[in-house]
Amino acid sequence: MDFERDYILRMIHMLGAMMRRLAERMDDAERDHQLDLEARKLCGMPLSTAETLDDASLGELLAPMPRFFMGELFYAKAKASTTLAYGQADALLLSALRLLASLHAEPRLCDLRAARLAELKADVFPLLTGDDLFMCARFFAQAESYDQMEDALFQALALMEGEAWAHNARQGVRLLRSAAKATGQALALCGMTAEELRAAAHELDAALIKRTGGSA
Predict the structure, then answer these.
(1) What is the rounded distance in angstroms from the CA atom of residue 126 to the CA atom of residue 27?
(2) How many Cβ atoms from other residues are within 10 Å of residue 201's Cβ?
(3) Phi, psi dihedrals of residue 120, rounded to the nearest 5°
(4) Which residue from 96, 131, 144 is spatially nearest to 117, judged by alpha carbons?
(5) DSSP character for 87?
(6) How far is it between the farthest Cα atoms of the chain?
(7) In the chain, which ranges are E strands?
(8) 47-100 pLDDT, tens per residue?
(9) pTM here?
């Protein structure tokens, strides 16, 4: 699905207004009711139902745009609610990250929501798996946030072993080499140079050769 930039911006503005309305609600019961209404309207199911599903099932059930909305609503609940049980806010933020990061093939969305993904990643970093972090790396690559991409990539690989490591390391080399070909402006905006990215790709390729006997 090709996300239109103007539409995404309108939806982000709408969701921001909703967050402000939630902050003005008197209690969490009112907030939860409003979030359920928004989730029904935007995603076809109440938020309370979505919370009972695991992240993989929810991602499969929802088309790309409803998946984006559901992640935003999970984020809203985690940030606005004041009576969540221990660990519930982190669980909501982790789900929000996974739903957003799963949209790494949508360049316009990645560009507009890279800062949100970076915030979520920082919030729940100890809970992230290697697969979560690799999805983040791909998202940041689409957003041309190559500094964040490099960090997430090597953090992901540090949590992987065996064939999973080798498979993702090969993809990582390709991501780094592709990033090194970005425009000077894109590289300057994220504080990276082509030389740094090529060096990281060379380092990872050398590790591949050492571990597997073959390069990317």
Answers:
(1) 30
(2) 21
(3) -60, -40
(4) 96
(5) T
(6) 62
(7) none
(8) 999 999 999 999 999 999 999 999 999 999 999 888 899 999 999 999 999 999
(9) 0.92
